[in-house]
Amino acid sequence: MLSRRNFLTAAVGVAAASGLAACAKEDDSSSGSDSSSGGGKKITLGFAQVGSESGWRTANTKSVKEAAKDAGYTLKFSDAQQKQENQISAIRSYIAQKVNVIAFSPVVVTGWDAVLKEAKTAKIPVILTDRSIETSDDSLYVSFIGSDFIDEGRRAAKMLEKVLDKAGHKGAVKIAQLEGTTGAAPAIERAKGFKEIMDAEHKDDWKVVVSQTGDFTRAGGKQVMAAFLQSNPDINVLYAHNDDMALGAIQSIEAAGKKPGKDILIVSVDGVKDGFVAMSEGKINGIVECNPLLGPQLMELVKKVNDGETVERRIKTKEGDFLQEQAKEALPTRKY
């Protein structure tokens, strides 16, 4: 029989464990079909998602869940609500549960070595999706599936060249930049790629006059753009690191009595359906696509990793670029 003291200690432990699971919004799902590997045992995948900050992320989550179900895997899914500590807790939970494979989209670039060493010690392979990390030991993860964010930044700059030409813009280009979450790979690398082209080819006529994070959210884009327009009313270009921030910024541009897509030319990254709607209305001038439908590729990779096969270190997704005049034609085919 448990003493009162031991009973209370056990109760506190259970409550603490439940609290961690609640923070990460963890849920388990599985399919009725049986994906056999290594003697017919169903593969269990632990997936730690960044959060639900944007339309892109919603589509990415849906793709992962549907693909896991189609593959017949047991999926243990957690939503970190854009907090690294929640993701780390989720990964440790997956290690304790002895899942076959762990995959996650890291909130930020750094700070993962300790928990990934724990996964390696437990002999659980880790796959990065969408976002990369900086680590002292590359063997802590087996592969990365996602976009080349630096190249997306370069493509956004080259797209802006076309947008300026089509608009007949002459004179100085005063750019406002809406950055993604501070410390996140897409925020760092999309800014880097854009600056690379700007410095090499437009040093004399382009200038980023103001730049701040909108945290990849529509509300953040709206709030920060309102502040940009107060401090720099002569902005004539907006470069947004994702569509949701651009869509929020459009609200502030219109509230200031300006016309998005005309008074302020807009280039963004992602290619979600709402972004294409805004393009078809003339409010966004160009979008660099970042494909969120990583689920099927991830499930193929999970099986190879679980079976002990050698896999590619980096797997890129296929993406396109879209200018305003292509929006109406492309909109009906948008899957996300």
Q: What is this structure, in a nutshell?
A:
The chain is α/β, with parallel strands linked by helices and 336 residues long. The protein contains 11 helices and 15 strands. It has helices at residues 4-24, 55-71, 84-96, 113-121, 149-167, 185-201, 218-231, 243-255, 273-280, 295-306, 327-330; strands at residues 26-30, 36-37, 41-42, 44-49, 74-79, 101-104, 126-129, 143-146, 173-179, 206-213, 237-240, 265-270, 286-289, 314-316, 321-323.
Judging from the principal axes of the Cα atoms, what is the shape?
A: elongated
Structural class: alpha/beta
- Trace the largest sheet across and list its strands: 1-5-4-6-7-8-14
Quote the distance from N terminus to C terminus: 56 Å
Major sheet: 7 strands, mixed
Number of alpha- plus pi-helical segments: 11
**Percentage of residues in DSSP E strands:** 15-25%
Mean pLDDT: 90
| Amount of helix | 40-55%
Number-wise, the strands total: 15
Instruction: Give me the strand/helix succession.
Output: HEEEEHEHEHEEHEHEHEHEHEHEEH
Q: From the alpha-carbon coordinates, what is the Rg to the nearest angstrom?
A: 22 Å
* Low-pLDDT ranges: 1-23, 31-39
